[in-house]
Design a protein that fits this description.
By secondary structure, the chain is of the alpha/beta class. The chain is built from seven helices and ten strands.
């Protein structure tokens, strides 16, 4: 069955949904295509990061941020510096702090400074690529201040999230539980009983392939229904979505619960092409997914 996806949102709808006095920054990692390239020249160019920037009722601006590999390298360097061992001599600590500050400044200069935004306005950031792993709050501006010293930063999985029609808001202490997923729901490419016997865990085989990649589905997780029953005793407002109802469509239609608990298979693929084969989505960064019922 084809899933009903959340409706598409155009640029005007997204801009209108940005809270007053805030900015939306949607980063995209892409490879430009040169239509006018000579036959001997490559048409696909090196990957770059760009940012789509808008605010309440403001036009969308496109800002080119530069070569993606350079920014990705800075992000990796920054993350290594964040987790560097703290047990070191005073001189090494000072050197490490100077290096950290330099990288934080460099990332600010590459990712935020070119946007030309009001310094005190809040940012709603939709990252892409390696930027998913970057805590923008820890970047330092040209005056040495952390980003969150003067502005609030929040994150979105996608800019269109702002324009989603919302049902009645769920309380912040609410809990939604997806469990006991029916992997035998129609059109999921379900594995046979023989497949289950050969690989009862439903996990990747020695070659790094997931069950979905091998052409089958997932083995049932029999303990997850009891898990959902236990979670219902925590004293929170709980909505349990079980069995054939635990589909991707139902998950995507949720209106931001306070807590979301998903009891299902997760898998990691060794190459993006395999992920595209299974999910129909092309991405330069995603290499894993979650199993759901009723997907096809």
């Amino acid at each position: 069955a084809v899933l009903a996806r959340p409706g598409l949102a155009d640029a005007d709808a997204v801009a209108a949904a940005v809270p007053e006095g805030e900015h939306l920054v949607a980063y995209v990692r892409l490879r430009p295509y040169e239509f006018g390239a000579a036959s001997e020249d490559p048409r696909w160019q090196d990957a770059r990061y760009v940012a789509f920037v808008t605010g309440r009722a403001a036009p969308v601006r496109l800002v080119d941020l530069g070569v993606a590999t350079e920014i990705d390298s800075l992000v990796a360097q920054f993350r290594m510096q964040v987790v560097a061992p703290q047990r070191m001599g005073l001189a090494r600590q000072r050197r490490a702090r100077r290096a950290f500050d330099a990288t934080a400044n460099a990332l600010y200069a590459r990712l935020l400074a070119p946007l030309g935004l009001d310094a005190a306005a809040a940012r709603r950031i939709a990252p892409d690529g390696a930027l998913h792993t970057l805590p923008f709050e820890a970047l330092r501006d040209g005056d040495g201040a952390f980003v969150t010293d003067t502005r609030r930063v929040s994150y979105l999985t996608s800019s269109r999230t702002l324009a989603r029609p919302h049902a009645a808001s769920m309380p912040n202490d609410s809990l939604v539980v997806f469990a006991a997923v029916d992997y035998d729901a129609p059109a999921t490419g379900i594995r046979t009983g023989a497949d289950d016997a050969a690989n009862p865990s439903g996990l990747a085989d020695a070659g790094g392939q997931s069950p979905a990649q091998r052409g089958g589905g997932f083995a049932a997780l029999l303990g997850t229904e009891a898990e959902a029953t236990m979670l219902a005793t925590l004293g929170l407002p709980v909505r349990s979505v079980l069995g054939a109802e635990a589909t991707e469509e139902r998950l995507l239609a949720l209106d931001t619960p306070g807590r979301l608990h998903i009891a299902t298979h997760g898998f990691f693929l060794n190459d993006a092409a395999a992920l595209e084969t299974i999910t129909g989505a092309r991405s330069g960064t995603l290499s894993g997914s979650l199993g759901s019922g009723g997907a096809g």
